[in-house]
């Protein structure tokens, strides 16, 4: 496998992070560059580079990440008010660390569309 990502180093406790949750499959910590009052990253301990690399057998792991997100929303007290969960894929999708992860964002009213000021790329 390629060079360790920053997330691999956080999982190995080689670099510090403000960890808010950990189990045998996943780890959640506060984002160091928060985009909302609450911005947590939920990562699997198994590295999968992008959504495009997911395989059928990964469905339970990805589902687990969403269960963790819901539990954290309850724990932090914003489940009823609402929150956003996002997983980016590749550069144009906003992915900067090639280890899949959920962004759990809360603490403000989020509008739609989320990227209203960005111009869409011509597809196709």
Automatic annotation (TrEMBL):
<dbReference type="GO" id="GO:0003824">
    <property type="term" value="F:catalytic activity"/>
</dbReference>
<dbReference type="InterPro" id="IPR011146">
    <property type="entry name" value="HIT-like"/>
</dbReference>
<dbReference type="InterPro" id="IPR019808">
    <property type="entry name" value="Histidine_triad_CS"/>
</dbReference>
<dbReference type="Pfam" id="PF01230">
    <property type="entry name" value="HIT"/>
</dbReference>
<dbReference type="InterPro" id="IPR036265">
    <property type="entry name" value="HIT-like_sf"/>
</dbReference>
<feature type="domain" description="HIT">
    <location>
        <begin position="6"/>
        <end position="115"/>
    </location>
</feature>
<feature type="active site" description="Tele-AMP-histidine intermediate">
    <location>
        <position position="101"/>
    </location>
</feature>
<protein>
    <submittedName>
        <fullName>Histidine triad nucleotide-binding protein</fullName>
    </submittedName>
</protein>
<dbReference type="InterPro" id="IPR001310">
    <property type="entry name" value="Histidine_triad_HIT"/>
</dbReference>
<feature type="short sequence motif" description="Histidine triad motif">
    <location>
        <begin position="99"/>
        <end position="103"/>
    </location>
</feature>
């Amino acid at each position: 496998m390629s060079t360790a990502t920053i997330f691999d180093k956080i999982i190995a406790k080689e670099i510090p992070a403000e960890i808010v949750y950990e189990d045998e499959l996943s780890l959640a910590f506060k984002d160091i560059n928060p985009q909302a009052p609450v911005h947590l990253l939920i990562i699997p301990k198994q590295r999968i580079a992008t959504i495009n690399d997911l395989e059928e057998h990964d469905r339970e792991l990805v589902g687990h990440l969403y269960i963790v997100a819901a539990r954290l929303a309850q724990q932090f007290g914003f489940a009823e008010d609402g929150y956003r969960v996002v997983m980016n894929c590749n550069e144009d999708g906003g992915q900067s660390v090639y280890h899949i992860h959920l962004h759990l964002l809360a603490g403000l009213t989020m509008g739609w569309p989320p990227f209203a000021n960005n111009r869409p790329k011509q597809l196709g």
